[in-house]
Design a protein that fits this description.
The protein has 235 residues and is mainly α. The chain has eleven helices and four strands. The strands form two sheets. Strands 1-4 form a two-stranded parallel sheet.
Length: 235
């Protein structure tokens, strides 16, 4: 009779449960510096707000294999920092904040699938943040993205060659009012959640708003953070 420990170990829902997974989707035994079966799982690193700390998580994953290990995988995909999905589905409220929180751009990372699987394997599920933390995190990302999007839209308007001057002036004034409103909304979010330094993005004129377009665009607030380069660097 086959014992439980001898049964094939398989992937379920994209996550590893034990060793024995094909090397294609899991770092081979010889490169690991941590044995989960003998040494246990790590607590998922979180910040003072209880939010999973992406950079600390990446470093944790790196030190559990030998330096120089190549994490290149057949594919890269999105890792939800706040997992598992079922925990958030069960906690979903009528206003959808819990579900929205888990899907925030800043609550994800784009990483090699092998590293993604390894992180799930070596870490304990992070605790669900408080409702207040989730609400503030949602508000912070929404307001920050609204500010950036407005400045970028205003700049695009100035580059439209066939827009009449009077219409351009009117549209820029509208976006300037929107920009000021979004900055004020952002002030309602506790400082520890802010994704932008409000003192650095305050403007008094339309020209100043247009000048904010480039630096706000570089923040890529609408793009999932990529950490492949960090995996290739030396710990």
């Amino acid at each position: 009779m086959i014992g439980q420990s001898d049964r094939p170990r398989v992937l379920r829902y994209g996550h590893f449960y034990r060793e024995g997974i094909p090397e294609l989707w899991f770092p081979p035994t010889e490169v690991r510096t941590w044995d989960v079966d003998k040494q246990g799982k790590f607590d998922t690193p979180v910040d003072e707000l209880g939010l999973v700390d992406l950079d600390a998580l990446v470093q944790l994953g790196k030190i559990t294999v030998h330096d120089g290990y190549d994490w290149t995988s057949p594919l890269n995909d999105v890792h939800h920092l706040q997992w598992p999905a079922v925990k958030y589905a069960e906690a979903t409220t009528g206003d959808g904040v819990v579900r929205t929180f888990r899907e925030l751009v800043c609550r994800k990372a784009f990483i090699p699938r092998r590293f993604h699987n390894w992180l799930h394997y070596i870490t304990v599920q992070p605790a669900l943040p408080s409702q207040d933390v989730m609400r503030h995190a949602v508000s912070a990302e929404r307001t920050a993205r609204a500010i950036a999007t407005t400045a970028q839209l205003a700049m695009r308007l100035t580059r439209m060659p066939h827009i009449p001057e009077d219409k351009l002036v009117k549209r820029l004034e509208e976006e300037f009012d929107n920009y000021l409103l979004y900055v004020e909304n952002a002030r309602e979010v506790p400082e520890e959640f802010q994704l932008l330094k409000l003192a650095e993005i305050e403007v008094a004129t339309i020209d100043e708003m247009l000048q904010m377009s480039k630096p706000l665009g570089k923040l890529a607030l609408d793009q999932v953070p990529v950490r492949y380069r960090a995996l290739k660097s030396v710990v």
